[in-house]
Amino acid sequence: MGISASAGRSIMLTARKSDIEFKVQVINQRRTTLAEQASKLARAFANNMYQNDDPMVLNGGNGASALPGFTAPAPTVGVAVITQSAVATGTYEQQMAFVQSLDKELELREKDLQTQNKMVETELDAVRKVIDKSIEKGFKTLG
Question: CA 22, CA 74: separation in Å to the nearest integer?
Fold first, then answer.
């Protein structure tokens, strides 16, 4: 392989490596967001369980569900806090299981991308060695 072909390959591998690193960063941001959602769910569940002065309910206190696709049981008229019940516990457990499954999925994807990144880095090192050898041979020919 010539120097120009090796240089082109090196550029392509560097771009691929950057793309993979960006995808890993996006996954880490999504995992951080999921951790925040899990924290909110746990805080809401604890508030409901201990019925403290915080009027937050499982659905965030504003009528919207804590996670898309899930709805918390509606409080009865005049009651600010949902009392501890099997329905509230089941909803909390479902939502936490959903968050954990998403996190596990993202973790597996991140590991896959890290493996790909190592492979690209290994190939990039090999291409750089080829370039160095080609340069060295070129100077030996001239000298």
Answer: 41
Question: For residues 20 and 82, is the Cβ–Cβ distance under 8 A?
Answer: no
Q: Which residue has the tokens 């937050």?
A: 56
Q: Where are the domains of the chain?
A: 3-142
User: What one-letter code names the amino acid at 132?
Assistant: D
Tokens of 134: 């080609």
d(CA 21, CA 36): 23
For each of the chain's 143 residues, which pLDDT tens digit applies? 688 899 999 999 999 999 999 999 999 999 999 999 999 998 888 887 776 544 444 444 444 445 555 555 554 444 334 444 544 667 888 999 999 999 999 999 999 999 999 999 999 999 999 999 988 888 776 65
CA distances from 24 to 62, 114, 143 (A): 33, 8, 46
- Predicted model pTM: 0.66
